[in-house]
Amino acid sequence: MHLTAQEERILAGEEGPGRQKAIELLVALGDIYGAERLIPIASAQVSGASFKTIGDAGIKFLEDFSEHAKVTVRSSLNPLGLDLRRWRSMGVEEDFHTKQARIVAAYRKLGVEPLYSCTPYLAGNRPRQGAHIAWAESSATVFANSVLGARTNREGGPSALAAGIIGKTAEYGLHLEENRKPKVMIDLGPVPEGLAPLAGYLVGKIAGRRVPLVRNVRFSEDEHKSFGAAMAATGAVSMYAYSGPMSRSRVDVSDVEERVALSRQEMIRCAEDLSGDGHWDLVAIGCPHCSAPELRRMARFLKGRTPTKESDVWFCTSRKVFASCPEEVGVLRRFGKVLCDTCMVVAPVERIYKRTASDSGKAMVYLPTLGKQRASFRPTMQLLEAISR
Amino acid sequence: MFCFPFGKGSTVGSYAMYQLRLNGMAPVAIVNGTAEPIVATGAIISDIPMVDGVDVGLLRTGDEIVADADMGSVELRGVAEKHVVTSIVRNRGRILLLQRSDHVGSYRGQWAGVSGFIEHGEDSEAAARRELGEEIACGKATLVKHLEPERFRDKEVVWCVHGFLFDVKDRKIRTDWEHQSHAWVAPEEVERFPTVPGLRRIVQKLL
């Protein structure tokens, strides 16, 4: 890689061991991927915030790192393992909270913005089209690349943090136009109500590591959010191109090597395959974090209804969205907990529950693995009907 | 020293390596076939020297290895690399296999192509043609294809095999003391013979 004189100085340790380690990481990744240089970024999104996912080693790493380094561009943080205010009522144990608090303190010292959300783009960190960014959260990465037209690879937690500290990232992968061209074309059949996440779930499996072009996409921004999140969970997909009413520009199809049809029947079959149990300990909505329109829609449906209280209910959102919807939050609270800072994927659900239902395709990948749950998929409306009468 | 082809997984994997460092259980170095971001990140945050681009299939548990992460090199001690040629000689769809005699130094009784050491300073094609003359008294052969050298580990030796495919006009050959018998076989029959290591792969690649 070609480094500027200033970057060489950082690499030589002249700006301290924290910045040195950060740039070592960026240069090593750049070398692996054949990048020629580092490029400035508009923002970073850092993953690895829950004690559940990073453990004691993560705490130690962040505490050591925070002694010597600070981010120099806007950097926001992924969800934690708990709601900082309501963790006790979530059923989170004292020891977990203690460890989580150390992670929070270390990130604060590093200067990372405490958004604690996987949807920074709904909570104030929304990149412009064409902006280079270094985002680690896979669902946010795919949304930023595909819907917002920003440019990021799917960073790991430490590399996104390193990019935030240096304010740069290595120029490879999806930062380069030629790698953003779709390799597989998917003709999407009509998507049944509530199954956009499963459409993404299936697209991710088809695409694997390739950028897909999905045709006939008629999704709202919220549907794109859940569609892309599921795709990034079942495939190593960090970007999709799409055509349909909301698409931004014409797509270059010169690299497309395969064309696949994904029918309505396949989506319905997928919903059946993932339907799991009929009774749950927890109903979890908000993976990725709920937007304000999603909270409004759910509150409108639930307003005149009565809670069944057959299972615990979590509505997960960012604190920013939570604060903007006090009335909706008031309605939803009658039916369950409206949680901020966390979600069912990174909270220690395995210590509290065994069977969880969700409307999220991404959660269908992580609840059974990371969360050790018997997971059941239901479209949002079916979950709302199940928790109310 | 932890040697493996490549890693996969999530960010947690990088932190798991850091945990190994904190527990005093980190490997002294990591040797990879292909470095990928999770392992590279883990190695950097944990200060574990790492070398990639190494064919870890040549390494064995218990080997003495010196890795130099600054140079990006790995030295395998007590193991010699020997450069040899192996020529597959073909005539009308059949290829020549030679059974090594009891008088040779290695792989006695096993079946091989026309093989021999590349002498110091010798060009590999010249070595291949010299062996054709010495071992089967073949003076005229048309080079069809040659392979990038392939490496095989066998005990204390890494054989670096330069594979060649030659066409010959007839099947008249005269073997020397190094071989006890020979056979012209169809390429798919090779697997029925007890062959020297790696021969099948070379035949597959050449044909």
Beta content of chain A: 15-25%
What string, H for helix and E for strand, traces the elements of chain B in order? Answer: EHEHEEEEEEEHEEEEH
Please indicate the count of domains of chain A: 3
What number of structural domains do the residues of chain B give?
2
How much strand of chain B? 25-35%
Q: How much helix is in the residues of chain A?
A: 40-55%
Oligomer: heterodimer
Return the average pLDDT of chain B rounded to an integer: 92
Shape of chain B: elongated
CATH architecture of the largest domain in chain A: 2-Layer Sandwich
The low-pLDDT segments of chain B are none
Largest sheet of chain A: 5 strands, parallel
Question: How would you describe this structure to a colleague?
Answer:
The complex is a heterodimer of chains A (389) and B (207). Chain A has 389 residues and is of the alpha/beta class. Chain A contains 15 helices and 14 strands. Chain A has three domains: 173 residues, Aconitase, domain 3; 92 residues, no CATH class; 113 residues, Aconitase, domain 3, CATH 3.30.499.10. In chain A, helix 14 links the parallel strand 13 and strand 14. In chain A, helix 3 runs parallel beside helix 5, helix 6 crosses helix 9 and helix 8 runs parallel beside helix 9. The mean pLDDT of chain B is 92. Chain B folds into two domains: 76 residues, Phosphohistidine domain (Glucose Oxidase, domain 1, 3-Layer(bba) Sandwich), CATH 3.50.30.10; 127 residues, Alpha-Beta Complex (Nucleoside Triphosphate Pyrophosphohydrolase), CATH 3.90.79. By secondary structure, chain B is α+β, with helices and mostly antiparallel strands. In chain B, a hairpin with a 4-residue loop joins strand 4 and strand 5. In chain B, the strands form three sheets. In chain B, strands 6, 7, 8, 9, 10, 11, 12 and 13 form an eight-stranded mixed sheet that branches. Chain B has a three-stranded parallel sheet with strand order 1-2-3, with no helix packed on it. A two-stranded antiparallel sheet of chain B has the order 4-5. Helix content of chain B is 20%, strand content 34%. The chains are: A alpha/beta (389), B alpha+beta (207). Chains A and B meet through helix 2, helix 3 and helix 7 of A and helix 1 and helix 2 of B.
